[in-house]
Design brief:
The chain is of the alpha/beta class. The protein has eleven helices and twelve strands. The strands form three sheets. Strands 6-11-10-9-8-7 form a six-stranded parallel beta sheet. 43% of the residues lie in helices and 19% in strands. The longest helix is centred in the middle third of the chain and has 31 residues. It folds into two domains: 121 residues, Alpha-Beta Complex (Aldehyde Oxidoreductase, domain 3); 149 residues, Aldolase class I (TIM Barrel, Alpha-Beta Barrel).
Length: 283
């Protein structure tokens, strides 16, 4: 089975970190020809994610391991659901157990938290975005988990879109100077500007940006900003998008969405998601 994401180097690093020169406990206690069958079971309600990577992971240890995935990625399941079964050489299964659980627990945690945010803004026009606040080395995997949870990926890194933030503006001298320089250097790229004030918003709109990041604004300020952007779009025939950011929580996200913003970016999806409880049990 082809992995849905390219995290081969991450899997190799994880296995090398855990197994290194060998799983001495399994080698010492398990006969080399012993076989086993394990079930990966959800111990809480969760959105499943990361299961589709398991065949690649265990193939790196022993190609004789057979992985049967029981649940589609992105599916919300109740506690007690069997997510996958693993059959094959017992030593290989035990050697890969912790890496497999760490991966699926972490990615399912991201997907589960993302789904809660997506459900919280249901029936509004807002989409939930991730950020670059990811665990080092796991960005591709975590952003995949956000999509499995129903969220939308923002830029993958510094290379695929222009996001002019407060420090860029400070060094460049102004919003206008930063936007003009970005447009000259990165033709064809989407240009977004972080705006802390309505004055910066007005300057960004005048400079012809594609999107504005409304940072740490109150809901009242967001309402005014969204109205201003809509008037601008109507006057000049643009489709500037609005994104709200800053201290977003499950308790506040719906009210933010009701201001009419197009996107809400949430760093917590990746930097604060709690790993879900999953067990690997012999069957």
């Amino acid at each position: 089975m082809q992995s849905p994401i390219d995290i081969t180097s991450l899997l190799r690093t994880a296995l090398a970190e855990d197994i290194a020169t060998g799983d001495i406990t399994s080698i010492a206690t398990i006969p080399v020809d012993a076989s086993a069958r394990f079930a990966m079971n959800a111990r809480c309600e969760m959105v499943a994610c990361g299961l589709a990577v398991l065949p690649e992971l265990f193939a790196m240890i022993d190609k004789a391991v057979v992985v049967e995935i029981k649940v589609e990625e992105g599916t919300k399941v109740p506690a007690g659901t069997t997510l996958a079964t693993l059959t094959g050489p017992a030593r290989a299964l035990l050697s890969g157990e912790r890496v497999a659980l760490n991966l699926v627990q972490q990615l399912s945690g991201v997907a589960t938290l993302t789904r809660r945010y997506v459900e919280a803004v249901a029936d509004t026009s807002a989409s939930i975005l991730d950020t670059r606040k990811t665990v080092l080395g796991m960005r591709v995997a975590q952003k995949y988990a956000v999509k499995c949870g129903g969220g939308t990926n923002h830029r993958m890194g510094l290379y695929d879109a222009v996001l002019i933030k407060d420090n860029h503006i400070a060094v460049a001298g102004s919003v206008t100077a930063a936007v003009n320089a970005a447009r000259a250097h990165a033709a064809g790229k989407t240009i977004e500007v972080e705006c802390d004030t309505h004055a910066q918003l007005e300057e960004a709109l005048a400079a012809g940006v594609d999107s504005v990041l409304l940072d740490n604004m109150s809901n009242a300020e967001l309402l005014q900003a969204v109205a201003k952007v809509r008037v601008h779009n109507g006057n000049v025939g643009q489709a500037v998008k609005t994104e709200a950011s800053g201290n977003v929580s499950l308790e506040t996200v719906r009210a933010i969405a009701q201001t009419g913003v197009d996107y809400i970016s949430v760093g917590k999806l990746t930097h604060s998601a709690v790993a879900v409880d999953i067990g690997l049990d012999e069957v």
